[in-house]
Design goal:
Layout lengths: L13 H29 L4 H24 L12 E3 L4 H9 L4 H26 L5 H24 L4 E6 L2 E6 L6 H20 L3 H4 L1 H15 L6 H5 L18 H29 L5 H20 L5 E3 L1 H10 L4 H15 L2 H8 L3 H24 L9 H17 L12 H4 L2 H17 L4 H16 L2
Antiparallel strand pairs: 1-4, 2-3
Helix pairs in contact: 1-2, 1-3, 1-13, 2-11, 2-13, 2-14, 3-4, 4-10, 4-11, 5-15, 5-16, 5-18, 6-8, 6-15, 8-15, 10-11, 10-12, 10-19, 15-19, 16-18
């Protein structure tokens, strides 16, 4: 007998709804808290502030997930989507964090402006889709992964190789005595082996949360060896509110705003591909109006992120893949996941526990997480025509080459105006700009229909990595 209801709108029994929602949260939790950890530690914030960033991130994750999958008039695609902070913004935000003139408040100003920008341009993004065929998207995602690998490797080493100290009133760089110690490297390797073991022999749900289980196992080992401390966890309250503008009023600087708006376009293009893939998985047609609502939710989420002390939001691809694996298509499952994230954000003790995880533990997992981002880009590029199209190799070569400049030659652009450094020091944005321009020059701009097909292929490739 044919179902009389749409499985996307099916409301499951409460126990199953909560269990499946928790599964979505566990699958995306490690990635969700990675960005506030990266930015908080890059800014050298005290542990309690990093813990607050994690709480704010989880709280905003919950709000934005509910906006996207429950939906409001004109906002939200109403599909089973989990939202989290995008890794695409990490590179630019690290550059902003390194600038004393910008800092955290400047980051929040650029995030708020990018959110407003996203809301405004959402209906027009589908018209830009032909600028982002797989050869462009693959290059961008590859460089995102490569750029973040540096973070993961330094985590595994126990921090940065050099630390800044003030001696006789003069700041200077000195070797980090805790960097690349054998005990820390052994913990990172242990986490990596746990993750690989679970991926290889774990089944279903266990395999899906291999990274999280690796972090839990590594934390246990670190605690046993006296490398993980719980004083901040003990002193943190069980409940606290996440209030807007906790660190002060945001500051608005033109170059960071332009930079984050460019990131927003890339994020929305990626989201569009995810929406098309979800439409295929759930059997629900995703038309231009639905895409506009979904992309507008990305903008609203990013605006909410800037207000509630966190960062730009996008659809999490691992959760899109989970929909395909489980076959559960109800958007109310991800809504339950959003409620769980809200509750976690209001429990600072949980956030403090996450912040207490040593960098070496995160390093073992980070190498896997960030490497998988790069692998996604490689897989997408694997579907690009390099055999009969002699221009595509040039596009990839130059786009990746420009994207590597900030990684291998950090001072390459030092003689250029300081205001441009947040843009020029982001390999991700350099790759995006160069690949879009070169693709338009060599290959021209294809049709919207072909671009939508390519975006769906891109999303499908991302899910299978």
């Amino acid at each position: 007998m044919q179902r009389a209801f749409d499985p996307v709108d099916e409301v499951l029994p409460a126990p199953r709804l909560v269990t499946l929602g928790l599964q979505h949260v566990l699958v995306m939790y490690a990635g969700a808290v990675a960005v506030p950890l990266i930015i908080g530690r890059a800014l050298k914030l005290p542990p309690e502030d990093v813990a607050f960033l994690i709480s704010a991130d989880l709280f905003a994750c919950g709000i934005v997930t509910l906006v996207q999958c429950v939906g409001f008039p004109g906002v939200g695609i109403r599909l089973p989507v989990m939202m989290g902070v995008t890794f695409a913004a990490v590179g630019p935000m690290l550059s902003m964090a390194a600038s004393p003139d910008i800092g955290l408040l400047g980051i929040y100003g650029s995030v708020i402006a990018a959110g407003v920008f996203g809301i405004i341009v959402a209906p027009f993004i589908s018209r830009l889709l032909p600028l982002f065929p797989p050869v462009v998207t693959g290059c961008i995602i590859l460089i995102i992964g490569i750029s973040l690998m540096r973070v993961g490797i330094n985590w595994a080493g126990g921090g940065l190789p050099t630390i800044t100290k003030v001696v006789d009133g003069v700041p200077g760089a000195f070797p980090n005595p805790n960097y690349a110690q054998m005990e820390g490297l052994a913990i990172a390797l242990f986490v990596l082996l746990i993750v690989l073991t679970l991926v290889r022999w774990g089944k279903g749900f266990v395999s899906n949360i291999a990274v999280l289980l690796g972090i839990v196992a590594g934390s246990g080992l670190a605690a046993f060896l006296g490398k993980m401390h719980f004083a901040k966890v003990a002193s943190a309250p069980w409940f606290d509110l996440v209030l807007p503008f906790h660190f002060g009023m945001p500051q608005f600087h033109i170059v960071p705003i332009v930079t984050m708006c460019i990131v927003m376009i890339v994020v929305m293009i990626e989201s569009l591909g995810m929406f098309l893939a979800l439409g295929e998985m759930t059997g629900r047609k995703v038309d231009q109006k639905a895409i506009a609502r979904g992309l507008r939710a990305d903008g609203v989420g990013t605006l909410v992120g800037g207000i509630f002390n966190t960062f730009p939001y996008t659809s999490f691809s691992q959760n899109v893949g989970l929909v395909g694996v489980t076959g559960v298509r109800s958007r109310w499952v991800t809504a339950a996941g959003g409620v769980i994230l809200l509750l976690l954000g209001l429990a600072p003790k949980m956030s403090a526990l996450v912040e207490a995880v040593p960098q070496v533990v995160l390093g073992g997992a980070g190498i896997v997480m960030f490497g998988m981002v790069a692998a996604t880009g490689i897989r997408i590029l694997g579907g690009v025509d390099f055999k009969t199209n002699r221009f595509n190799p040039f596009i990839v070569a130059l786009a990746v080459g420009f994207g590597m400049i900030p990684l291998v030659a950090p001072n390459f652009f030092k003689v250029l105006p300081h205001a441009l450094h947040p843009l020029l020091e982001s390999g991700i944005l350099l790759t995006a700009i160069v690949s879009v321009i070169l693709n338009a020059f060599f290959n021209g701009i294809g049709s919207a229909e072909k671009a939508e097909h390519d975006a769906a292929d891109t999303a499908a490739a991302a899910e299978h990595v």
